[in-house]
UniProtKB/TrEMBL annotation:
Region feature (Disordered): 1-25, 48-105
UniProt keyword annotation of Cell cycle present: yes
Identification of the protein by name: Cyclin N-terminal domain-containing protein
Pfam name, any one: Cyclin_N
Gene Ontology MF terms: cyclin-dependent protein serine/threonine kinase regulator activity
Cell cycle listed as a keyword: yes
InterPro entries registered for this protein in UniProt: Cyclin, Cyclin-like_dom, Cyclin-like_sf, Cyclin_A/B-like, Cyclin_C-dom, Cyclin_N, Cyclins_cyclin-box
Domain Cyclin-like: 192-276, 289-371
Biological-process GO terms, alphabetical: cell division; mitotic cell cycle phase transition; response to gamma radiation
Bias (Basic and acidic residues) ranges: 78-102
Domain Cyclin C-terminal: 285-402
UniProt cross-references to PANTHER family, sorted A to Z: CYCLINS (PTHR10177)
Source organism per UniProt: Panicum virgatum
Keywords: Cell cycle, Cell division, Cyclin
Amino acid sequence: MKAADENRRPVTGKPVPSVREMGNRRALTDIKNLVGAAPYPCAVAKKPMLQKNGRDEKKPALASSRPMTRKFAASLASKEEPEHQVTKTDSELGADHNKEPIGDGTIDIDVEQYEPVPDVDMDETDHKDSMSEDEFTMDIDSADSGNPLAATEYVEELYKFYRENEAKSCVKTDYMSSQQDINAKMRAILIDWLIEVHYKFELMEETLFLTVNIIDRFLEKQVVPRKKLQLVGVTAMLLACKYEEVSVPVVEDLVLISDRAYTKGQILEMEKLTLNTLQFNMSVPTPYVFMRRFLKAADSDKQLELVSFFMLELCLVEYQMLKYQPSLLAAAAVYTAQCAINRCQHWTKVCESHSRYTGDQLLECSRMMVDFHQKAGTGKLTGVHRKYSTFKFGCAAKVEPALFLLESGGTSPPSSGTI
Protein backbone atom coordinates (compact mmCIF):
# COMPACT_ATOMS: atom_id res chain seq x y z
CA MET A 1 0.00 0.00 0.00
CA LYS A 2 3.05 2.26 -0.04
CA ALA A 3 2.48 3.25 -3.66
CA ALA A 4 -1.17 3.96 -2.95
CA ASP A 5 -0.23 6.21 -0.05
CA GLU A 6 2.14 8.15 -2.27
CA ASN A 7 -0.63 8.76 -4.74
CA ARG A 8 -2.94 10.17 -2.10
CA ARG A 9 -0.45 12.20 -0.07
CA PRO A 10 2.64 14.15 -1.33
CA VAL A 11 6.02 13.45 0.20
CA THR A 12 6.63 17.12 0.98
CA GLY A 13 3.65 17.38 3.27
CA LYS A 14 2.24 20.31 1.31
CA PRO A 15 -1.46 20.26 0.33
CA VAL A 16 -2.23 18.68 -2.99
CA PRO A 17 -2.86 21.38 -5.64
CA SER A 18 -6.39 21.67 -6.89
CA VAL A 19 -7.44 20.88 -10.43
CA ARG A 20 -7.60 24.58 -11.29
CA GLU A 21 -4.08 25.13 -9.97
CA MET A 22 -2.68 22.20 -11.92
CA GLY A 23 -4.32 23.20 -15.18
CA ASN A 24 -3.30 20.78 -17.93
CA ARG A 25 -0.05 19.75 -16.29
CA ARG A 26 0.70 16.10 -15.56
CA ALA A 27 2.84 14.70 -12.77
CA LEU A 28 6.35 13.73 -13.78
CA THR A 29 5.64 10.12 -12.75
CA ASP A 30 2.89 9.96 -15.37
CA ILE A 31 5.35 10.38 -18.22
CA LYS A 32 6.70 6.92 -19.03
CA ASN A 33 8.21 5.93 -22.31
CA LEU A 34 8.55 2.26 -21.40
CA VAL A 35 7.24 -0.54 -23.59
CA GLY A 36 4.66 -2.52 -21.69
CA ALA A 37 4.33 -0.02 -18.85
CA ALA A 38 0.74 1.09 -18.42
CA PRO A 39 0.50 4.85 -18.02
CA TYR A 40 -0.81 6.16 -14.78
CA PRO A 41 -4.38 7.47 -15.26
CA CYS A 42 -4.77 11.23 -15.39
CA ALA A 43 -6.89 12.64 -12.57
CA VAL A 44 -8.24 15.50 -14.67
CA ALA A 45 -10.95 14.98 -17.27
CA LYS A 46 -10.42 17.29 -20.23
CA LYS A 47 -13.23 15.73 -22.28
CA PRO A 48 -15.76 12.93 -21.80
CA MET A 49 -14.57 9.43 -22.64
CA LEU A 50 -15.81 8.32 -26.04
CA GLN A 51 -18.31 5.50 -25.99
CA LYS A 52 -16.23 3.25 -28.19
CA ASN A 53 -15.49 -0.46 -27.85
CA GLY A 54 -12.22 -0.49 -29.87
CA ARG A 55 -11.16 -3.80 -31.34
CA ASP A 56 -13.21 -5.97 -28.97
CA GLU A 57 -16.84 -5.48 -30.04
CA LYS A 58 -18.13 -7.72 -27.24
CA LYS A 59 -16.88 -5.49 -24.42
CA PRO A 60 -19.37 -2.89 -23.19
CA ALA A 61 -18.64 0.81 -23.48
CA LEU A 62 -17.14 2.63 -20.53
CA ALA A 63 -19.71 4.21 -18.25
CA SER A 64 -18.68 7.56 -16.86
CA SER A 65 -19.75 6.55 -13.35
CA ARG A 66 -17.66 3.38 -13.15
CA PRO A 67 -14.84 3.54 -10.56
CA MET A 68 -11.37 3.67 -12.05
CA THR A 69 -8.88 1.13 -10.75
CA ARG A 70 -5.39 0.47 -11.94
CA LYS A 71 -6.50 -2.78 -13.51
CA PHE A 72 -9.28 -1.04 -15.40
CA ALA A 73 -6.93 1.74 -16.53
CA ALA A 74 -4.39 -0.82 -17.70
CA SER A 75 -6.99 -2.72 -19.69
CA LEU A 76 -8.03 0.49 -21.44
CA ALA A 77 -4.43 1.35 -22.26
CA SER A 78 -3.70 -2.14 -23.59
CA LYS A 79 -6.39 -1.74 -26.26
CA GLU A 80 -4.64 1.32 -27.63
CA GLU A 81 -1.19 -0.32 -27.80
CA PRO A 82 0.07 -2.04 -30.99
CA GLU A 83 -0.28 -5.84 -31.04
CA HIS A 84 3.48 -6.38 -30.96
CA GLN A 85 3.82 -4.53 -27.63
CA VAL A 86 3.90 -6.53 -24.40
CA THR A 87 1.04 -5.82 -21.96
CA LYS A 88 0.51 -6.92 -18.42
CA THR A 89 -1.83 -9.87 -17.83
CA ASP A 90 -4.59 -10.04 -15.25
CA SER A 91 -2.39 -12.22 -13.06
CA GLU A 92 0.36 -9.62 -13.12
CA LEU A 93 -2.09 -6.94 -12.14
CA GLY A 94 -3.75 -9.06 -9.49
CA ALA A 95 -1.88 -7.26 -6.77
CA ASP A 96 -3.56 -4.05 -7.78
CA HIS A 97 -7.17 -5.29 -7.53
CA ASN A 98 -7.73 -4.06 -4.01
CA LYS A 99 -6.27 -0.62 -4.47
CA GLU A 100 -8.63 2.29 -3.98
CA PRO A 101 -9.97 4.30 -6.93
CA ILE A 102 -8.76 7.85 -7.49
CA GLY A 103 -11.21 10.51 -6.41
CA ASP A 104 -14.86 9.75 -5.69
CA GLY A 105 -15.37 7.68 -8.84
CA THR A 106 -17.56 10.23 -10.59
CA ILE A 107 -14.89 12.15 -12.60
CA ASP A 108 -14.45 11.16 -16.21
CA ILE A 109 -10.94 9.89 -16.80
CA ASP A 110 -8.95 10.52 -19.95
CA VAL A 111 -5.99 8.19 -20.23
CA GLU A 112 -3.18 9.99 -22.05
CA GLN A 113 -0.24 8.36 -23.76
CA TYR A 114 3.19 9.95 -23.71
CA GLU A 115 4.02 11.50 -27.04
CA PRO A 116 7.72 12.25 -27.62
CA VAL A 117 8.61 15.78 -28.68
CA PRO A 118 9.15 15.89 -32.46
CA ASP A 119 12.66 16.56 -33.66
CA VAL A 120 13.39 20.18 -34.48
CA ASP A 121 14.82 21.02 -37.84
CA MET A 122 18.14 22.45 -36.74
CA ASP A 123 18.85 23.89 -40.16
CA GLU A 124 15.69 25.97 -39.99
CA THR A 125 16.50 27.14 -36.45
CA ASP A 126 20.03 28.09 -37.42
CA HIS A 127 18.64 30.03 -40.39
CA LYS A 128 16.33 32.04 -38.14
CA ASP A 129 19.13 32.74 -35.68
CA SER A 130 21.40 33.88 -38.48
CA MET A 131 18.88 36.44 -39.71
CA SER A 132 20.07 39.91 -38.90
CA GLU A 133 18.31 41.95 -36.24
CA ASP A 134 17.53 44.66 -38.75
CA GLU A 135 15.28 42.33 -40.74
CA PHE A 136 13.01 42.10 -37.73
CA THR A 137 13.05 45.81 -36.91
CA MET A 138 12.77 47.36 -40.34
CA ASP A 139 8.97 47.55 -40.12
CA ILE A 140 8.46 50.54 -37.84
CA ASP A 141 4.73 50.81 -38.59
CA SER A 142 3.49 47.43 -37.36
CA ALA A 143 2.61 48.82 -33.93
CA ASP A 144 0.34 51.43 -35.56
CA SER A 145 -1.45 49.04 -37.91
CA GLY A 146 -4.72 49.58 -36.04
CA ASN A 147 -4.43 53.38 -35.98
CA PRO A 148 -6.16 54.95 -39.01
CA LEU A 149 -4.34 58.25 -38.43
CA ALA A 150 -0.98 56.54 -39.00
CA ALA A 151 -1.98 55.59 -42.57
CA THR A 152 0.24 52.52 -42.41
CA GLU A 153 -1.27 51.13 -45.61
CA TYR A 154 0.34 53.82 -47.75
CA VAL A 155 2.81 55.61 -45.50
CA GLU A 156 5.78 54.46 -47.60
CA GLU A 157 4.15 55.79 -50.78
CA LEU A 158 3.41 59.03 -48.94
CA TYR A 159 7.05 59.61 -48.02
CA LYS A 160 8.17 58.56 -51.46
CA PHE A 161 6.00 61.39 -52.78
CA TYR A 162 7.52 63.79 -50.24
CA ARG A 163 11.05 62.93 -51.35
CA GLU A 164 10.18 63.38 -55.00
CA ASN A 165 8.64 66.80 -54.36
CA GLU A 166 10.82 68.26 -51.60
CA ALA A 167 13.06 69.96 -54.17
CA LYS A 168 10.05 72.04 -55.27
CA SER A 169 9.76 73.50 -51.78
CA CYS A 170 13.39 74.61 -51.73
CA VAL A 171 14.65 78.03 -52.78
CA LYS A 172 17.85 79.24 -54.38
CA THR A 173 20.63 79.48 -51.85
CA ASP A 174 21.59 82.93 -53.10
CA TYR A 175 18.13 84.46 -53.56
CA MET A 176 18.94 87.20 -51.08
CA SER A 177 21.31 88.71 -53.66
CA SER A 178 18.27 89.82 -55.67
CA GLN A 179 16.95 91.85 -52.70
CA GLN A 180 17.98 95.47 -52.61
CA ASP A 181 16.92 96.61 -49.14
CA ILE A 182 17.15 93.48 -46.97
CA ASN A 183 19.82 90.89 -46.22
CA ALA A 184 20.32 87.55 -44.52
CA LYS A 185 20.82 89.14 -41.10
CA MET A 186 17.43 90.86 -41.30
CA ARG A 187 15.85 87.56 -42.26
CA ALA A 188 17.42 85.97 -39.19
CA ILE A 189 16.05 88.72 -36.92
CA LEU A 190 12.56 88.26 -38.40
CA ILE A 191 12.51 84.47 -37.96
CA ASP A 192 13.94 84.67 -34.44
CA TRP A 193 11.06 87.04 -33.55
CA LEU A 194 8.48 84.78 -35.23
CA ILE A 195 9.71 81.82 -33.18
CA GLU A 196 8.86 83.81 -30.05
CA VAL A 197 5.44 84.78 -31.49
CA HIS A 198 4.81 81.13 -32.35
CA TYR A 199 5.68 80.14 -28.79
CA LYS A 200 3.50 82.91 -27.30
CA PHE A 201 0.46 81.87 -29.38
CA GLU A 202 1.08 78.19 -28.53
CA LEU A 203 0.79 77.15 -32.16
CA MET A 204 1.52 73.73 -33.65
CA GLU A 205 5.05 72.80 -34.69
CA GLU A 206 3.99 72.35 -38.32
CA THR A 207 2.92 75.99 -38.44
CA LEU A 208 6.39 77.34 -37.68
CA PHE A 209 8.14 75.37 -40.42
CA LEU A 210 5.49 76.25 -43.01
CA THR A 211 5.74 79.93 -42.01
CA VAL A 212 9.48 80.01 -42.71
CA ASN A 213 8.99 78.17 -45.99
CA ILE A 214 6.38 80.70 -47.15
CA ILE A 215 8.68 83.59 -46.27
CA ASP A 216 11.63 82.21 -48.24
CA ARG A 217 9.58 81.28 -51.29
CA PHE A 218 7.94 84.72 -51.31
CA LEU A 219 11.22 86.62 -50.90
CA GLU A 220 12.73 84.59 -53.72
CA LYS A 221 10.14 85.97 -56.16
CA GLN A 222 9.28 89.39 -54.74
CA VAL A 223 11.54 92.32 -53.93
CA VAL A 224 10.49 93.60 -50.51
CA PRO A 225 11.48 96.91 -48.86
CA ARG A 226 12.88 96.77 -45.37
CA LYS A 227 9.85 98.38 -43.74
CA LYS A 228 7.55 95.63 -45.06
CA LEU A 229 9.67 92.64 -44.12
CA GLN A 230 7.85 92.20 -40.80
CA LEU A 231 4.54 92.44 -42.66
CA VAL A 232 5.65 89.53 -44.84
CA GLY A 233 6.45 87.56 -41.69
CA VAL A 234 3.14 88.03 -39.86
CA THR A 235 1.20 87.40 -43.07
CA ALA A 236 3.11 84.16 -43.67
CA MET A 237 2.25 83.05 -40.16
CA LEU A 238 -1.43 83.89 -40.74
CA LEU A 239 -1.46 81.74 -43.90
CA ALA A 240 0.34 78.87 -42.14
CA CYS A 241 -2.18 79.01 -39.30
CA LYS A 242 -5.07 78.84 -41.76
CA TYR A 243 -3.48 75.79 -43.34
CA GLU A 244 -2.38 73.91 -40.20
CA GLU A 245 -4.24 75.16 -37.13
CA VAL A 246 -7.70 74.30 -35.86
CA SER A 247 -8.06 77.64 -34.08
CA VAL A 248 -6.58 80.48 -36.16
CA PRO A 249 -5.44 83.76 -34.53
CA VAL A 250 -7.53 86.71 -35.66
CA VAL A 251 -5.89 89.46 -37.72
CA GLU A 252 -6.26 91.93 -34.85
CA ASP A 253 -3.95 89.75 -32.74
CA LEU A 254 -1.28 89.99 -35.41
CA VAL A 255 -1.72 93.77 -35.52
CA LEU A 256 -1.15 93.95 -31.76
CA ILE A 257 1.82 91.57 -31.80
CA SER A 258 3.52 93.74 -34.42
CA ASP A 259 3.02 96.80 -32.21
CA ARG A 260 0.45 98.26 -34.63
CA ALA A 261 3.11 98.75 -37.28
CA TYR A 262 0.55 97.59 -39.86
CA THR A 263 -3.20 97.79 -40.22
CA LYS A 264 -5.65 94.97 -40.77
CA GLY A 265 -6.12 96.08 -44.37
CA GLN A 266 -2.38 95.92 -45.07
CA ILE A 267 -2.18 92.36 -43.72
CA LEU A 268 -5.09 91.22 -45.89
CA GLU A 269 -3.56 92.87 -48.96
CA MET A 270 -0.23 91.15 -48.30
CA GLU A 271 -2.11 87.88 -47.84
CA LYS A 272 -3.56 88.14 -51.36
CA LEU A 273 -0.18 89.09 -52.83
CA THR A 274 1.55 86.17 -51.11
CA LEU A 275 -1.00 83.60 -52.27
CA ASN A 276 -0.87 84.82 -55.85
CA THR A 277 2.92 84.87 -55.84
CA LEU A 278 3.06 81.27 -54.58
CA GLN A 279 0.16 80.27 -56.85
CA PHE A 280 -1.77 79.09 -53.79
CA ASN A 281 0.67 76.22 -53.27
CA MET A 282 0.69 75.61 -49.51
CA SER A 283 1.19 71.85 -49.65
CA VAL A 284 4.95 71.45 -49.46
CA PRO A 285 7.06 68.92 -47.54
CA THR A 286 8.81 70.86 -44.79
CA PRO A 287 11.51 69.40 -42.51
CA TYR A 288 8.77 68.72 -39.97
CA VAL A 289 7.15 65.84 -41.91
CA PHE A 290 10.51 64.13 -42.35
CA MET A 291 11.44 64.75 -38.73
CA ARG A 292 8.41 62.81 -37.50
CA ARG A 293 9.28 59.84 -39.67
CA PHE A 294 12.94 59.76 -38.72
CA LEU A 295 12.20 60.07 -35.01
CA LYS A 296 9.95 57.04 -35.34
CA ALA A 297 12.71 55.13 -37.09
CA ALA A 298 15.07 56.09 -34.25
CA ASP A 299 12.59 54.79 -31.67
CA SER A 300 12.89 58.14 -29.91
CA ASP A 301 11.90 59.11 -26.42
CA LYS A 302 10.79 62.59 -25.36
CA GLN A 303 14.32 63.84 -24.76
CA LEU A 304 15.56 62.84 -28.20
CA GLU A 305 12.49 64.42 -29.78
CA LEU A 306 12.99 67.77 -28.03
CA VAL A 307 16.74 67.94 -28.65
CA SER A 308 16.17 67.07 -32.32
CA PHE A 309 13.64 69.87 -32.76
CA PHE A 310 15.98 72.24 -30.93
CA MET A 311 18.69 71.48 -33.49
CA LEU A 312 16.25 71.90 -36.37
CA GLU A 313 14.86 75.23 -35.18
CA LEU A 314 18.37 76.59 -34.79
CA CYS A 315 18.75 75.97 -38.52
CA LEU A 316 15.60 77.95 -39.37
CA VAL A 317 17.31 81.17 -38.36
CA GLU A 318 20.43 80.50 -40.42
CA TYR A 319 20.25 81.57 -44.07
CA GLN A 320 23.16 79.31 -45.03
CA MET A 321 21.17 76.19 -44.11
CA LEU A 322 18.87 76.73 -47.09
CA LYS A 323 21.34 74.77 -49.18
CA TYR A 324 20.19 71.53 -47.53
CA GLN A 325 16.98 69.78 -48.49
CA PRO A 326 14.30 69.32 -45.79
CA SER A 327 14.86 65.56 -45.46
CA LEU A 328 18.61 65.99 -44.91
CA LEU A 329 18.05 68.72 -42.33
CA ALA A 330 15.65 66.49 -40.40
CA ALA A 331 17.96 63.46 -40.56
CA ALA A 332 20.98 65.53 -39.49
CA ALA A 333 19.00 66.98 -36.56
CA VAL A 334 18.13 63.49 -35.28
CA TYR A 335 21.70 62.31 -35.84
CA THR A 336 23.20 65.31 -34.01
CA ALA A 337 20.74 64.95 -31.14
CA GLN A 338 21.62 61.28 -30.73
CA CYS A 339 25.31 62.12 -30.69
CA ALA A 340 24.76 64.83 -28.07
CA ILE A 341 22.68 62.59 -25.81
CA ASN A 342 24.70 59.37 -26.17
CA ARG A 343 28.07 61.15 -26.34
CA CYS A 344 29.05 58.98 -29.30
CA GLN A 345 28.17 58.59 -32.95
CA HIS A 346 24.88 56.76 -33.22
CA TRP A 347 23.05 56.07 -36.49
CA THR A 348 21.38 52.68 -36.86
CA LYS A 349 20.69 50.74 -40.04
CA VAL A 350 16.96 51.36 -39.52
CA CYS A 351 17.52 55.13 -39.44
CA GLU A 352 19.73 54.90 -42.49
CA SER A 353 17.14 52.84 -44.36
CA HIS A 354 14.22 55.19 -43.70
CA SER A 355 16.15 58.46 -44.09
CA ARG A 356 18.15 57.31 -47.14
CA TYR A 357 21.23 59.01 -45.64
CA THR A 358 24.33 57.47 -44.12
CA GLY A 359 26.16 58.95 -41.16
CA ASP A 360 28.93 60.22 -43.43
CA GLN A 361 26.42 62.05 -45.63
CA LEU A 362 25.00 63.81 -42.57
CA LEU A 363 28.31 64.72 -40.99
CA GLU A 364 28.81 68.09 -42.73
CA CYS A 365 25.35 69.38 -41.83
CA SER A 366 25.61 67.88 -38.36
CA ARG A 367 28.84 69.75 -37.65
CA MET A 368 27.16 73.03 -38.52
CA MET A 369 24.36 72.19 -36.08
CA VAL A 370 26.91 71.50 -33.36
CA ASP A 371 28.43 74.91 -34.00
CA PHE A 372 24.98 76.57 -33.78
CA HIS A 373 24.29 74.63 -30.58
CA GLN A 374 27.55 75.81 -29.05
CA LYS A 375 26.75 79.48 -29.78
CA ALA A 376 22.95 79.35 -29.22
CA GLY A 377 23.00 81.12 -25.87
CA THR A 378 25.27 83.94 -27.00
CA GLY A 379 24.70 86.93 -29.24
CA LYS A 380 21.42 88.75 -29.87
CA LEU A 381 19.35 86.03 -31.56
CA THR A 382 18.63 83.70 -28.65
CA GLY A 383 14.92 83.04 -29.18
CA VAL A 384 15.36 79.31 -29.86
CA HIS A 385 17.74 78.88 -26.93
CA ARG A 386 15.37 80.60 -24.50
CA LYS A 387 12.43 78.55 -25.76
CA TYR A 388 14.22 75.22 -25.28
CA SER A 389 15.65 76.26 -21.92
CA THR A 390 12.19 76.07 -20.34
CA PHE A 391 10.82 73.04 -18.50
CA LYS A 392 8.01 72.82 -21.05
CA PHE A 393 10.60 71.85 -23.66
CA GLY A 394 12.62 69.65 -21.33
CA CYS A 395 15.54 72.09 -21.01
CA ALA A 396 16.81 70.57 -24.25
CA ALA A 397 19.11 73.53 -24.88
CA LYS A 398 21.17 72.58 -21.82
CA VAL A 399 22.35 69.30 -23.33
CA GLU A 400 26.09 69.42 -23.92
CA PRO A 401 27.01 69.93 -27.60
CA ALA A 402 28.55 66.97 -29.43
CA LEU A 403 31.84 68.77 -29.90
CA PHE A 404 33.65 65.56 -30.84
CA LEU A 405 31.89 65.74 -34.22
CA LEU A 406 33.87 68.89 -34.98
CA GLU A 407 37.11 66.96 -34.70
CA SER A 408 38.77 65.41 -37.72
CA GLY A 409 36.73 62.41 -38.86
CA GLY A 410 34.03 63.08 -36.30
CA THR A 411 35.33 60.40 -33.93
CA SER A 412 33.83 60.17 -30.49
CA PRO A 413 35.83 61.13 -27.37
CA PRO A 414 37.96 58.41 -25.73
CA SER A 415 35.60 58.15 -22.75
CA SER A 416 32.71 56.83 -24.85
CA GLY A 417 32.35 54.02 -27.31
CA THR A 418 31.33 54.46 -30.91
CA ILE A 419 28.27 52.60 -32.12
